[in-house]
Amino acid sequence: xxxxxxxxxxxxxxxxxxxxxxxxxxxxxxxxxxxxxxxxxxxxxxxxxxxxxxxxxxxxxxxxxxxxxxxxxxxxxxxxxxxxxxxxxxxxxxxxxxxxxxxxxxxxxxxxxxxxxxxxxxxxxxxxxxxxxxxxxxxxxxxxxxxxxxxxxxxxxxxxxxxxxxxxxxxxxxxxxxxxxxxxxxxxxxxxxxxxxxxxxxxxxxxxxxxxxxxxxxxxxxxxxxxxxxxxxxxxxxxxxxxxxxxxxxxxxxxxxxxxxxxxxxxxxxxxxxxxxxxxxxxxxxxxxxxxxxxxxxxxxxxxxxxxxxxxxxxxxxxxxxxxxxxxxxxxxxxxxxxxxxxxxxxxxxxxxxxxxxxxxxxxxxxxxxxxxxxxxxxxxxxxxxxxxxxxxxxxxxxxxxxxxxxxxxxxxxxxxxxxxxxxxxxxxxxxxxxxxxxxxxxxxxxxxxxxxxxxxxxxxxxxxxxxxxxxxxxxxxxxx
Length: 481
Description:
single chain, mainly alpha, two-stranded antiparallel ribbon, globular, disordered N terminus
């Protein structure tokens, strides 16, 4: 089966795991060559190598990691059927599922033994990737303290997301246990959009922890480009049901809120790493991870009649010929701020332009402006995390993404990918909340798939075509208001 068809099947099954009626219409197969392939190398179905003993990251939350086996009892999360009274209890099986992105975390370590990973490691000169800290920070569960049942070759296990379980494993299933107490004992409150974003960003976007930064050298060696959207990634990896019990214990999650907080925290994370000399520079060069890929990865013409493929970006006041900072999250935040925090919109856009402008004035000036924009992103994340978003606001954000104020900034592939994922995510949230019928949303599938098709191939991205496709989708969305 061609790889694209494999990815299509994986994505569709992942959608079916969460979105009930809307799952039938939310399976964007046409984005596969671009976004799905870049979600992570984990999505490739690979053979199992012999496990290799190695050490993972030493910068971790407090507590001991007891291992996946500690969660696998038949009275806990190791059942073969989702028939538990409180939780599904088949979470381990879903974590191990070979045919869906939901099983990608369990395959993470195994990926390191495959030919592609071995070739990347050889180019980087790091030896066996299954024992290289550069890889284990994300392809295994980083654990400073390990219990007797912890296995490195379990890959990204339960505790990588939920936190080291020594403090809360027994208490979370005890009679009378409550979620607040478990969190106090070290359980990560993943229902909190800020906590979830911070956790997911470490591997799916990057961090300053050991082995959690896929820099330009690693990508040049063959690693997929890093791309992240919190609600979409949560959908792909979700192993639980948001039922009445979940809502009673943890509250009802909001796709719009997770999307907005994720965008703000991704930008904050990017700017913070850029500001650190050890991450923002590579020898005498800047670290190209932070810049738009297509500004350099374009065809080079020596024909005097050649026409450039780039378009001027009104959000980036920089001289022609300079690589622009990757502003995909800035663009999404610009749309969100105009709707959710209009009092900050002018200031945010002004600071974004000041940061881009500073890139031509030297690193010191750029770092100064980056820190200002990072603080503003942090403030927005805090603001977004405290509020609920109305149906009208969600529609307004989708409309804003394709508006005359924002759409001209979609000159590069990364921002375009974020925008179509945003429209799909926000519309799905409306359906899940019962604010738009699945039947009505189904009428938009053709338009949204057209927008996905416009970003299906990074090397063939055409900004004008994408804007037309996205604009048509959003115009149809307006009819659902």
